[in-house]
Amino acid sequence: MKLRFLPLAVAVVACHKTASFTPSATDVGFPSSSATGAAVYSGDRRAPSFPDAWPYKAGRAAVFGQHAMVASDAPLASQAGVEILEHGGNAVDAAVAVGFALAVVFPEAGNIGGGGYMVIRMADGRTAALDYREVAPLAASRDMYLDEQGNLTNKSVVGPLASGVPGAIAGLTTALAKYGTMSLADVMAPAIRYAEQGFVVEGPFARSLTSNARLIGQFGGAGVFLPDGKPLAVGTRLVQPELAQTLHRVAEQGAPGFYTGKTAQLIADEMHRDGGIITTEDLARYKPVWREPIKSSYRGYTLLTMPPSSSGGITVTETLNILEGFVPVPPFGSAEYAHVLGSAYQRAFIDRNEKLADPAFAPVPMKQLTDKAYAQKLRATIGHDRATPTSSVAKTMREGMETTHYSVADAQGNAVATTTTLNALYGSGVYVRGGGFFLNDEMDDFAAAPGKPNMFGLVQGEANAIQPGKRMLSAMSPTIVLDRDGGLLLVVGSRGGPRIITSTSQVILNVLDQHMILSDAVSAPRIHHQALPDSLAYERNGLAPAVLDSLRQMGYGLEPIGGVGLINAIMRVRGGYEGMSDPRSMGRPVGY
Ligand code: DON
Fold first, then answer.
1. CA gyration radius for the chain?
2. CA angle (158 as vertex; 155, 159 as ends), nearest 5
3. Crossing angle of the two packed helices 372-379 and 312-324, in degrees rounded to 10
4. Count of domains in the chain?
């Protein structure tokens, strides 16, 4: 088996254990890519058929690792995780290292100025979910983004008012302290090295800077990313000394190195320059929250996923509970499958958009929404061959892929699924001068004007209105799937706003119901329905023309879109792990 990427040239000190697993009722077979690069469909894995015009063919090679695997959106960040694993760190040590490394080498979405969610499953059976979502600043208010006529401004998206109080550093340090085995300085070493010694700008980063130059150019990051007014060119070495200093403060002092003292002051100064409201008090008060993961079942498999303040886990669970009643599940790629899956999403999103919010501020009917009997009632409302209208609204969906998800699994069978974001690419655009990092524009995930669409076209309700100290509702859905014997099977998650929910769940369904190998499950065309706008979105060329005709006849408004999510996933196979980054993205797993 050939790795796509060789392990780093670091001293290999760890005792290299092969991943150890309990025998499994799910036979996911041998690694699916042979030495020749041709897919191997063994065990109960089946070759799917994708539409002729679909650009990502079935049978791609995944990355195989005998011991451990990291899948992230940036090859250098995946390498940082493997470096830690090879030095004897566990999956949590590696995940924290990846999180910090992404903040350096993938500044469009990796971050220390944003927040995220982490689902952890230790091989000894312990499970945890960490919520390090941003919170609204103390001076935030319900109508802060409305102009005098009551119209929404773009201040929840661009500029200093758009930022929630960052949770990333609190989250990463808290996860490490509870479940990691290495020191903060050790797991931060690769990130600090990347910041101090620099890394070479490659095509995807240069393109991303070019398309976001207008946003970045308005704020303090212009000098770093647009020297002489031009985006960094491919081949340039980007060194980030201010970011390195911030990281050193954190490595030495822990979270207080960010939330108090110099870094906190730099953030507050940046805010005050231009009308932002985050204060040093906001920063000093920030706390991440340990939560119980949502534990649900799907056809005998167990899902461990993220509870509110993210809507991800509940919405994935509700969708799968609705689908579970369809036996057998219709064939992949058929109009029937798009109909039942789209209808399940539509119903789950209606609940999501109205009922979910930060549980510290609004009652969240978690039990009801994850209940199988409730799902049965919703299932009964799905017509045999007719779309059910949500109601008609303007099509305001925006194509955005700005978050980042990474998955880690180690030789002991510990696993971490983490999704983190600045919200839009480069967040609010505001760059903390002297601190070397972008701040998020997560405030737009609130219902800035309940009943009106946000940047993702999501129409959300009162429960998610802005209140000081409240977490804005998220769609992030880091998920770990266990096989029918309780062994680790999948670590998965995505980026893409509300499409995080639909992309993550479709990869899970492709593996569990459609018996795909991991690479096919990730490459397969996806659909999306978020209730409003009331249309079934599908990836361009992802549904065959005859299937589109049938769906039209069923009454669906169909919307071709550029992409549904960007996945980074790991699957346990015989003898190790496979890692797969979405072929739609520039991510790359590294295993060893
Ligand atoms: O938390 C959320 O749901 C959003 N802030 C995620 C944003 C995202 O995925 C950006 N990419 N489209």
1. 22
2. 85
3. 60
4. 1
Q: Which domain holds residue 483?
A: 45-198+239-314+401-592
Q: 157 CB under 6 A from ligand 1?
A: no
> Residue 248: inside a domain, yes or no?
yes
pTM here is: 0.93
Summarize pLDDT for 258-295 with one digit per residue, the tens.
999 999 999 999 999 989 999 999 999 999 999 999 99
Encode pLDDT of 101-145 as tens digits: 999 999 999 999 999 999 999 999 999 999 999 999 999 999 999
Is residue 397 in contact with ligand 1, taking CB distance under 6 Å? no
Point out the residues that are catalytic. 403
Residue 223 is assigned to a structural domain of this protein: no
In-domain check, residue 136 = yes
Q: Read off the CATH number of the domain in which 90 is found.
A: 3.60.20.40
Tell whether ligand 1 has an atom less than 6 A from the beta carbon of residue 401.
yes
- Atom of ligand 1 at shortest range from CA of 400: 12
Judge if the beta carbon of residue 495 lies within 6 A of ligand 1: yes
Q: Which residue has the higher pLDDT, 326 or 22?
A: 326
Please tell me which residue, 33 or 442, carries the higher pLDDT value: 442
Mutate to test the pocket of ligand 1, among 102, 399, 402, 419 (most ligand atoms within 8 A of CB): 402
Comparing CA positions, the residue from 137, 107, 139, 109 lying closest to residue 246 is 107
Helices (H) and strands (E) in the chain, counts: 18, 22
